[in-house]
Amino acid sequence: MKIIRCPWCLGDEIYVKYHDEEWGNPVTDDRKLFEALILDGAQAGLSWITILKRRQSYREAFDGMDPEKMARYGESDIARLMADPGIIRNKRKILSAIGNARSYLAMTEGPGSFSRWFWDWVDGEPVINRYKTMEEIPASTQLSERISKELKKQGFSFVGPTIIYAFMQAAGLVNDHLADCFRHPATAGHGT
User: Fold this and answer.
1) Do residues 187 and 35 make contact, with C-beta atoms less than 8 angstroms apart?
2) Does residue 88 carry a pLDDT above 70?
3) What CATH number has the domain bearing residue 43?
4) Is the pTM of this model over 0.90?
């Protein structure tokens, strides 16, 4: 039986593995969501495969994506990151990651969680779309625009509506696997 996948992942084994095992899976862990947000911000203006291939380097460079450590980064850390060939050496993106770690900590100081904050936007359940072609999938939505505005109010950067929609897809808040993809909930586990 032939497995049907979303066409965006075809042509690269790393992309296929990511599509098959991660993309669209609901993520509820605060730290994993934080990492996803940082990586999606790093992707701005680039292809996702560029960041995906560097994901482990990002984890190493940013202390395992530990927001407590990242929030304390100073000038020497910025210089170290700017010299690291394993990540995208864009100072604005590096400063954004550090600032976003601080905003994350401020957001999670109270009784709430980062995960609950995001999942409340979709009433705790993934939005399941049934697109048939890649052209139907939007780059952003009214919901991603609202989330983007709220995150910016809380001090986050590199969180525009398009980045947030990509984040929502990656974190499973939205399931945008095409309707005939084996990962779409309506066809999950079926080959053709």
Assistant:
1) no
2) yes
3) 1.10.340.30
4) yes
